[in-house]
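Here is the promised in-class demo. Please do not try to memorize the tokens; focus on the logic of going from shape to residues.
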């Protein structure tokens, strides 16, 4: 694709992906406020934005072989936990934004963990391992097979972990 269109598709992808999450949050709020029909509308449009995001992303041709995708994901996770989040954390500390410090710390720790999983997956690509991953719904920490009593990252209950196959 030519540069200008490629940039626009990239921006469209980002916009649609953000809209997906924004609308899901709006749906949750509508649910809490007792408007189930409006919640359903927000959820429906969020699903539609997801369709757009997926189509735009496909056009960007960023999906490679699984080995390349693992390498790329490992590099991105490493970069965010070694560079991006530490920078954001420094600024959050400077501004004494405690909620941001906590959110960024939990995310940075989880990203480091994600990178480890990608690295292990790259090493074990050939070996057939049967693993159920469990994800902390509060902080994004990932465990393999065993459900912890409490999340080692956010100290939330391990009972809330979501199994992903
Ligand atoms: Fe991550
Ligand atoms: Fe957690």
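The designed amino acids, position by position:
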């Amino acid at each position: 694709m030519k540069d200008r269109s490629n940039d626009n598709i990239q921006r469209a992808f980002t916009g649609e992906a953000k809209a997906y999450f924004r609308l899901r949050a709006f749906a949750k709020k509508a649910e809490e406020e007792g408007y189930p029909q409006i919640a359903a509308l927000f959820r429906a449009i969020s699903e539609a934005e997801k369709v757009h995001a997926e189509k735009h992303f496909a056009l960007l041709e960023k999906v490679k072989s699984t080995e390349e995708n693992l390498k790329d994901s490992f590099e991105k996770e490493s970069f965010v936990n070694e560079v991006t989040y530490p920078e954001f954390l420094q600024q959050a500390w400077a501004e004494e934004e405690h909620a941001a410090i906590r959110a960024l710390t939990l995310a940075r720790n989880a990203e480091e963990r994600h990178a480890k999983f990608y690295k292990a997956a790259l090493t074990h690509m050939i070996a057939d391992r049967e693993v159920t991953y469990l994800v902390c719904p509060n902080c994004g920490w990932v465990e393999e097979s065993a459900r912890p009593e409490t999340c080692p990252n956010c100290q939330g209950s391990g009972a809330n972990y979501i199994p992903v196959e």
